Amino acid sequence: MDLARMAGILFRSAFSRPATLVALVGATTFFGAMTGSASAAGCGETIEPGRHAISFDVGGVTRQGIYFIPSSYTGKDKVPVVFDFHGSNSNPDGQFTRSSWDKVAEKNGFIAVALQGSLSGKAAGTFGWNVPFVQVAKSILPSGDQGGQDEIAFISAAVNTVKQEFCVDPARVFASGYSGGGRMLSAYICSGGEGFAGAGFVNSLRAGRPVEVDGKWGPDAANCNPAKPVSIMAFAGIKDQQNPYAGGGSAYWQYGFKTAIQRWTDLDGCKGNDDPKTVDGVTYSIYGTCKNGARIASYVFANGTHDWPKPVAGAQAVLAAAKESAAAGVTKVSAVAPAKPAFDSNVDPAFRMWDFFSKADSTDLVATAAPAKTNAGAKTGTSIASDCATQAELEGTSCTSSQPINMRRSGQGVQDAL
């Protein structure tokens, strides 16, 4: 796609589309393919499946990211979009490797976009986010918060551009953030930033900058004013050392996960209680009645660390194997079928978030998502993904995992991603 600027207007040709798109912040008009048709913005053009680079001009500064196009994309039907925000000392490619959002996108036919933060990370090719009102320690990012760009403006420009340049449903644009990326996503929504119908957070949910009142830390109420109630799914590990579940830690963190969830229930006007249920060390909770149809769901892992959770085989696989054997006449077992668990504790965050996003207007179907197909002899529950070599992450490759690579890549993006 050839781009040209003329009097503050972005033009594009219908004849080609390269991997890079440029957004003009403040541009008043975006023209579709110049064929004279009145089709929706971004529709009518095919794009090669896979990962592509993308750049945005934000106030004269070029910002980077990548996007993933599923093989089912035709440019004719409007599809959803999920933005994926990387942690500190990581990058967009590494984040897709960690989260598997591109795999979820391929399976479910939507576009995934990963933006790149403006702060330099510890290793070459890694970055962090210039989260408003946050002084990041040099032990996390060598640049602290010096020299960072306006991330709020960047995210807003990126969301608007993606809506214009691709054939997407503007009502089905969602976001997910890990660690520093989730803190950035929290800040964007708290600032009144619009465009996301739902958001997911892994080891990262915030509800405003931390303030101490009478010796107790909590979110600054004046620092979080969402434009509207937003559906949220958040994940946390009780053994998280970087962003502690109970609070404390770095200056940017301080208040705990429960406090953040409680503040969001206030912001979203939720009623009732979260009705927590625990299976295999995983506690699932949901506030299903909030303003504007929003919902707030959470998963807390008793043995969870700061790493992105990954699923392992569940007891359902063992039961399924036993049933198959009995049906084949291999053996016959007389036993009472076990009670159905309260929810499936075999949690893959990206797949679970997608269920949550896509069923936002339905009754709670999230907790009964089908478990991954795995070997019958493996343990039940959820394990934690281990770190990978930095170079492998920078190259966007996956780490060794007991899970099939098309199901779960256990990459951490880059080591020390916070």
What would you say this structure looks like, in words?
With 418 residues, this protein is α/β, with parallel strands linked by helices. The protein has a single domain, classed as Rossmann fold (3-Layer(aba) Sandwich). The chain is 19% helix and 22% strand. The protein has eight helices and 18 strands. Strands 3-4-6-5-9-10-13-16-15-14 form a ten-stranded mixed β-sheet, with helices on both faces. The two termini are 36 Å apart. GO terms for molecular function: feruloyl esterase activity.
The CATH architecture can be given as 3-Layer(aba) Sandwich
Q: Rg to the nearest angstrom? A: 22 Å
- Helicity level: 10-25%
Distance between the ends = 36 Å
Domain module tally: 1
The CATH topology corresponds to Rossmann fold
Following the backbone from N to C, one meets helices and strands in this order, namely EEEEEHHEEEHEHEEEEHEEEEHHEH
What is the count of helical runs? 8
Q: Which term fits the overall shape?
A: globular
* Main structural class: alpha/beta
Please describe the biggest sheet, giving its number of strands, its sense, and whether it closes into a barrel: 10 strands, mixed
Low-confidence stretches: 1-39, 330-334, 361-415
| Order of adjacent strands in the largest pleated sheet | 3-4-6-5-9-10-13-16-15-14
CATH superfamily: Alpha/Beta hydrolase fold, catalytic domain
